[in-house]
From TrEMBL:
InterPro entries: MFS_dom (IPR020846), MFS_sugar_transport-like (IPR005828), MFS_trans_sf (IPR036259). Gene3D superfamilies: MFS general substrate transporter like domains (1.20.1250.20). The keyword ATP-binding does not apply. It comes from the Eukaryota. Pfam families: Sugar_tr (PF00083). GO terms for molecular function: transmembrane transporter activity. GO terms for cellular component: membrane. Keywords: Membrane, Transmembrane, Transmembrane helix. This is Organic cation transporter protein-like. Its main location: membrane. The chain crosses the membrane at residues 18-36, 126-145, 157-177, 183-201, 213-234, 240-259, 333-350, 362-380, 392-412, 418-443, 455-474, 480-502. It is a multi-pass membrane protein. Residues 74-507 form the Major facilitator superfamily (MFS) profile domain.
Amino acid sequence: MDFDEILAKCGNRHRYQYLLLGLYSLLMFVTSMHNFSQNVIGFVPDHWCYHKQLENRSFAQIEAIYNQFDNPSCTRLETIGPDYDGRNATVSGEQCDRWIYNYDFGFRSMNTELNWVCDEAYKAPVGQSFFFIGSMCGTLVFGVLGDKIGRIKAVILANLCGFLGDFSTIFTSSLSAFSTARFVSGLAVDANTYLMYILALEYLPPSLRNSSLSISMGVFYCLGMISSCGLAVLVGHWRIFLACSSLPLLLVILFYFLVQESAQWLVTRNDIDGAVRRLKRVAKMNRRKVSEIDFREFRNYCQINCTKKTPESNEKGDQFIDMFKTPHLRKTIILMLIVFTIVTVCYNTLARNVEGLGISPLIMFSLTALTLPPSGFIQADIQKRIGRKGSSVLSLLLTGLFTAASGIALSVSQNPSALLLISLTMASRLGLSICLGSTLLFSTELVPTCVRSRGLSVAHMAGAAASLLSPYILHLGTFYRAGPSIILCLLFLIGCYFCLLLPETENRKLPITLAEGEEFGRGERMFDFLRHPKPDKTEAETPLKETS
């Protein structure tokens, strides 16, 4: 009796699974506030150099005066004169050291309080780069820990790093202290969610994996992002915002008492007794009665099938590098890493670009968040109809073509309206969200359970490292307006092609060991997923083998 069969007897869509989805949704809400706190505290409103003669003028008047000069935000004036439009204003040779800020909804960001604008505007991006460097390190470290000490402990440690980094940022005022705090905060990014994603996936049946995870992610990630903007407006100051948004991360400590460690992972660690204990707790919570005979058959299956390793692997355990020792699994993992990295780069290039669109970044941030819930429902429906591989291929293809069309439209119009820019941005974000959700589920199912945490950590680390190119991709727009869109389109199409080379995971028994990973999808051709049979509409919880 394999794991899917024993899980069906213990209950694979009952109280424990719904508790798991509820906690996963809570984590999505909390971590979305953490992941985008860097953007919120770094928003820069319209600003101009302070002058005593401007104290009684409106923001519209101040803007009209400074718009006469090439660099209105950083130009210091010597005299302005009594004229309404400031036509007699003269430029000072001194640098600006004080600014007038037109705060968005009264929110005072870190950049405005520390005056990190103009000549010191580089400081915030430096801190943000350390945030992403921390993300690269964190995904690798916690990915290894997830396969060494367990998923739950690694999730808790990752979120504690996020809390420590965000809370310590409150007390920083120098670039070195700020960069250090953001590095610690960045350690939690991705690691604080994908480990819980893996854990939920390993306890859920295929139907709930398909719909519930993607919908939960879309809805609650959206709520977290909108709540971030609402919280920023409500408290009005970046330090108070960080304090309020970081404290909920401590709630993840409760997961240790509520969530069972992955039974599949325990089996790969040769802790079959521990796996049986967790399954018995799941059965008890689901009010299912499972006989000792069934657990004995599961033990026998694990002892026969899950311990077939070389003497060296028995001593050291499966390592991530072992996936590259066999040809078919090596090809699958390399292709998965390429596709995941491409999607991550495209997502980070567009998702965080909410300024310069002719609208308050707080409003734009909330508007783009509204695309997440429909993306979750659309993703779930597409995956139900054409499978994991089909949904990934289709979303990559269509998003790539739409991105190219958007770039052409922007290059044709020299001064596009704010409505056009907002519409294109939201449409692109919708497609990106579907791509990211489809690719995350597809990639997770491709990696064998024994190294799944480390495999996903390397994928996230590769994506974070490649995302350092995102600012440069956007910067190409200053030379050729359609340049970023063309590059992103090519990346999407390349990712679509490589995705076609991967095996389908829909309605398949997922690999647990490396040996099963080597055989998974062997002999499958590029377009076999188009005629892949649909899963049954009902998923009875019987001892029959359950596919995924």
